[in-house]
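YM 10:42: Lethal giant larvae homologue 2 domain-containing protein sequence, as discussed on the call
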Amino acid sequence: SRFSSGAGGARASCRRAMDRAKKKFANALDGLRSLGNRNEMSIDVEERLQPEHCVLRTVVRHGFPDEARCLAYDPVQRLIAIGTGRGAVRVLGEAGVDYQMVHPTDHAVYKLLFCVNEGALVTACANDMVHLWNFRQKHPEILHSLQMSKEAITAMHLAYGGRWLLLGTEKGNVYFVAISTFQLSTYVINWNKAIDIACRVHPGSVRQISTCPTDHNKIGIVFEKGVVALWDMPTKTAERLPMDPPVKCLSWHYNGQSLMTGNVDGSICIYNAKKWSEVFQKSTPHGTGTCRPIHQVDWRHASEADQFLVFSGGMPSDDNLPIPAITVLRGSKSATVMEMEQPIVTFITLNSVPQENMPQQPHGIAVLLKNSFMLIDLLAPQYPTIDCPHSLDIHESPVTTVVYYSDCPSDLMGALTLVGCKQRKKGMSERNWPINGGVGRDCATGHQELVLTGHKDGSIRFWAASGEDLQILYRLKAASHFERLEETDALKDVSHAIKSIELCLDSRLLLVTGVSGQVTLFRFVKQEGVNVIAVVSIPVLSPPPPPATASTSSGYGGSSMEEKPREMRRQAKLLSESSRRQSSETSDEGDERIVPFKIRGGAVKRPPGYQPELSCLVPWRSSSAVDPVTATALNSAFGVMAIGTGSGLALVDITQCALIYAWSSAELYGSDPTPAVQLGSLSMGDCSPIEMPSSSYRASLDAADEVGEDVAVSLPPTSPKWAPEPGALAAPHLGTPPTVPEEGTVGQRPPGRSHSVKGSSGIMRRLTNKGHSIARSFSLHVKENDGKRNATGGGPPTAGSSGVGSTTNSVMNGSPSTSCASLERTGRAIGEASTSAEGVTSLSFMHTFTKRGDKSSQASLWVGTSNGACIALNLLLPPDRITCSVVVSPSGTVIRARGACIAALWMDAAFCVIEPPYEKYRETNAQASPDRSCTNKVITKESLSPTYAAQQEAVSADELAQVVVLISEWEVRVVALPSFALLFVHKCAEIPFVKARATHVRGHPCLMTLTAAGQIAVFSLPSLRPLHTSQLLPRSIEIDDPACQRMSLSEHGLGIYMASPSELEKYTVCAELADQASESMGELFVPMEVADPNGGANGASGGGAGSFLKGIFSGTGGTPRGAGPADLDAILVDKPGPSGAGGAVSMRTVGRTIPGPARLDRAAAGGVSAGQAAAMALQNLNERGDKLNATVDATENLKNSAQTMATRSAKLVEKMEKKKWYNF
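YM 10:58: structure's back
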């Protein structure tokens, strides 16, 4: 027996070597023959889409600004601005008012100031540049910039109505900048003149600058080391506060006679103008113990007797844990401490009155945290937070995937809104959002847009993105039904994070995939209900390890399995049915199926919305190696979902909640159909366990493994390799219970077919046990049954009419295979040679042609692999989906491409983009449709689709009934169906594709792709003519980069991606849509009048005499406003004369004024060259000469006319004198 075993192994090795040699010879022969007979078709197509129709432009950005650094508020315009560490400023107002202003460089913005009610914003960046922004128009622009060359800016202040910007530097000096011209004044407050002469150390950088509310000539300066100086502008003298304790911040009383300081020791001191050198009052709000410093303090008044004291910090330091908190003291009442979950960056008190010299009437506190923004209502008891209409909490849990639908049905949006309105946060203030400035955007697209974000905590959020705004609709806890096993607590890869989301907009089915191999199908239910989740276990698809020493202790043998069945839903590790041979195939970890979760069983009451219906668990390769889910697909019309992993493919029947079939990557190249099996005859209430193969059958498999050669084993039709998929009975939403025959029958294999079992690769078919039907709402058990099964019964529906089992059609490089029989005989060799590390990368359902010469289309699944193979599988859908299962028939068609397959899309004979069939949404208790439509959905309007050229004859339907576009990493192929002739091809020279989707620009079909360089490339369809390429991402990415999961391409040339960990950005490649979005933008600045504290209205409407912007645009200064600005102008404006000129020259070395792009554009528009000026002067001179000559001529004519008139007048006088005056 040993000799025979050795001889058998040698024969098997020789046979495999011969098969590989035949394969190489067949491929070489195919290549030689294809040189002279390539299967190509030449057509001429007229496409209306032109390159000028495409442009990449950002539409809007949503979310919390990444790396927020500073905050500013305009109490008149009711706008708030947030500066970021990436050189951008986000301005927020009412819902829909969300603008981003980007600086020329990406240096951090760490200081912000509004020119209140002027439509201007001042920003200070980390490169020591100060910019003046004008946002009076739809597109904000920079008017002026000031580059500081010697000193870095550390503080900035602009008084209400003031015309001079105060800049504090790291060297302790204070400079003055005229807002109208952005020129530095020669007046400088030097640090050595501001501090006490007795102080012999440098006070440090300027930390804060604040002017007196009633006298702008008095300036309070806080230095880094706790020194406070009160500088008097006219006299150039300073008064100083005591240095004990050191001061961190200060705030003025509105009457200007007192100020409050926050100190390093957590205390608060009040000083009076009568004697600044002594503390008038001191208190420690959080006890007498050691407290942390107070970083910021704000002293506000609702009335003269009602004061608000708001400060951050000052908490006790006994616990040695920094607690970020905001403390509010109102009058004599107790302190209210609001602890924050994140570090506090800064806060601003929102005032109803913009003037600083009167009670400000605060109504809220805007708090900027490290990764969040919140608004506290000071008018409500307990100070609750106000619900923000802006989507600033997208990143509350890190976003792991994004899906974008730019044309969502309105009924789905309404249904999500209805179920999501009950999920509103509790404990929020009932007050409306007070920062309601600006005019909101109009909807540029006119479509209902839906965005789904998957998060790390396993939740999914549904957002309405219509109207250029992002509003939360519904939250789904997609991981609530999973429970982590104790055995996996130490594993780092176990996570509830969402990896991919598939939503069928028509049937409302939702397929969610997790990073740890968990897949769940959700069904939308409008009412609250009780359901139980059906569980389908996926077999181990990865190839088994090399044979090890034999052992009879493992496997399914023994009586313990019979006596003690285990529940599949709750087991931590299952013995792997995909490697049911004896321990000759087991690894060091044993023949075990490793899953990191268990599903909470039992009936659970669930709220309306998306409810879990079916769950699948993909086993891991080992306790430290996840078999990742690389692709998923869902089709409601076929009732099938596909799960692709790095090792193979599994198909699940969502109607029966059963596993249809499972392949390893090598088996995908086979040509054997799955047996069609009728379901058993158990009642709804029965729950029969699944029977495992008999001992004799297992022994035959083990013997085949020990021999190590190809052995034709006739598999018993009732013996699945993996049998947790017995086919559940109809769920309540499927209507009436199914009628099943009394005695179950199983399908028998066609004559002459047998499975090839290899001990080295473990290639075996995983069949579905259809001998028993198990209700969806019941548990699923696994146990051993040594009894004999009835192998007789009705044969399966043959697939001969569909060409199942026919020769393989391999379309490689655009040419048909001429050695199909050889490829079919060596299918396993191909699998071994090319699929050792092959995984599924794309899945697409479609009703199409799968074989050359097909007369009619049929349901199919196209599987793309990482090795560039696109494999077509036929789906034979039975009329009765309750009692009959789907049969999967390999078509034999394999289309090869360069690189991993990314996507596949189809067009019909009129070159209209089509999508697979779908099933309309129906209520849970609605009757199921007797027949499901299998008509593809046409997306493109036929009037806008490409047409044949005038000289091109129409191609017959036998050759071109459909067009499939296959996108891989390195090329795009357009193939005609059913002739499988290559129409067009586009090959990438250097940069591969990582993502692709069919879309429409101006209604015309095109292909939108993302390249590895972070570029968006647009191609026409079907000719693949390049239309546009622009940079979208700042870095390069790979096909498996997480950035690809956080990006989604959609219809109408729209797309969305995570521009930062907390921001979503929507863009378009359609020039027409970009123009519409630009025109539909709202307004940030709205002219408003401010009430004069002395009565009447102040002309601060943005266009009055007091507006400095009016002076900027007209070239003259405006009328000074505020308390004492005339005195400041007299002090700060440079005096003419030699000294003034010298001072101006010296200030140019400190800072240099740079005109903004707007000013440069105006100068370029109005500027002319010297030659042009000379030509214009000469032309004017000639014109002047001509005019002078015309004047001389006119004068001469007038002279002649005057002389003629004088002669005539003289003659008339003479005549009248000689006339007789008497008549007698």
